[in-house]
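Entry type: protein chain
Record version: 2
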Amino acid sequence: SSAQAVNHSTLEVRFETEVDELKTKSDESLKDLKNSLKITENNVEILKKENQERKVVFSASLSGGEWANHGPYSTDVTLVYKHVFINIGNAYNPVTGIFTAPVRGVYKFKIYAHGYSGRGVTVSLQKNGHHVTGAYAYQDQHVVNSSNGVSLLLEVGDVVCVKVKANEWIFDNWFSPHHL
């Protein structure tokens, strides 16, 4: 009958309208999700970049392998580690021998000292001009080595350096480079 046909046709129109509305809502939700994902990806990239910028790693030796004595001096002298292997973050200055913390964090330092033949080998790792730890060795004959390490909580601008103590010395060559 014609009444049934009209009802069927009306039902079809309503059904199509509801499907279109659901599709539109679904498309909008998908668009929102894509925008959220894009924002999240951008935030992740920003965090990665910030994390990369905050990385601080350096390793250096007093020389590039040539034989050299450092000391004895009449006063404590800052050692300048001129041969830089790595300096991510550029926090170590190979001209002054001073490391300056660019961000607040825990930094781990290792020091090595090498010497020989009846001389004291003494170096002092200092934070903001104050002794924190050192490496010392003495032996009547032949070579002698000493090492030490420390983890320090540094604030932005704190400085760390290694000094050879007054009247002491260290030796450097390509067999046993003294490095930080």
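Comment: The longest helix spans residues 2-54.
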